[in-house]
Amino acid sequence: MLDELGQKIIHELQEDARQSFREIGRKLxxxxxxxxxxxxxxxxxxxxxxxxxxxxxxxxLNFMCIMGIEVKVGAAExxxxxxxxxxxxxxxxxxxxxxxxxxxxxxxxxxxxxxxVKDVIANIPDIVRTTTFVVMHISRRPWEHGLDVAALFKx
Length: 155
What we know:
Layout: H1 4-15, H2 21-28, H3 32-44, E1 63-71, H4 76-83, E2 89-94, E3 101-107, H5 110-119, E4 127-134, H6 149-153
Antiparallel strand pairs: 1-3, 1-4, 2-3
């Protein structure tokens, strides 16, 4: 379980992961060593990772779509393993219901998506059907808004 100090440290890192442990400690009124040890523990337990998150649109990836993929029974992991080889796959998950896999895909232009469908999707025999939703606008971007860990832990 994540305690209150751990939640506050995560919040500080979300605000600016480049700030020093000393600065975080000063803000939270704990020692630099405490912050360092807590961050080390959070990293080791895979509760957090500290990384740069690029903004796809600023990189020219202006065509984004969400695709629901129905596959043959028992083929989801095999299809996922093939799809994640593509650099255009931003997010991919297996799920329940009529759709077996949901993916978010990013491209520079619709023509790249067309090539992806022809060259990748169409060549995976275990895919039965796809349903694609073109993203028209984005209301919340993961690189602009941190996950409010403290709010998730409130009863």
